[in-house]
Amino acid sequence: MGREVGSSLFCFDRQLTLVSYILKRKKCVLLLSTMHHDDAANEDQERKPDIVLFHNEMKSGVDTVDHLVRVYTCKRRTQRWPMVLWFNTLDYAVLAACVI
Is residue 3 one of the residues assigned to a domain? Predict the structure, then answer.
């Protein structure tokens, strides 16, 4: 029942590629990419599609940014959602300004 582990399904549109990759039994990874336009898969790493490998390489950068925003934050405790949104935006803007 279902697909085998390591199998991939691709869906292509003009500028988009959607991949469905079975990582484990009952564990499906869905990724949408505007950078990849083919169904290339790496035979060395459990037939993982290039989109999944690229995502795995780049997610450490996201983890680093999230860590820096948590450490150097300007947030205040508030129950008002517009203020929460403002403080989150301000945190990322401050980090971007420090990088530049």
Answer: no
Residue 2 lies in a domain: no
pLDDT digits (tens, 9 = 90+) for 57-84: 888 888 888 899 999 998 888 899 999 9
Give the distance, in angstroms, between the CA of residue 61 and the centroid of all CA atoms in the same chain: 10
- Is 35 within a domain? yes
Q: Which residues in the chain come in under a pLDDT of 50?
A: none
pLDDT at 91: 93
- Domain encompassing residue 91: 8-99
Beta partners for residue 8, in sequence order: 21
> Distance of alpha carbon 46 from its chain centroid, rounded?
20
Residue appearing with tokens 């950078």: 35
Q: Which residues pair with 20 in a beta bridge?
A: 9, 30
Residue at 91 is within a domain: yes
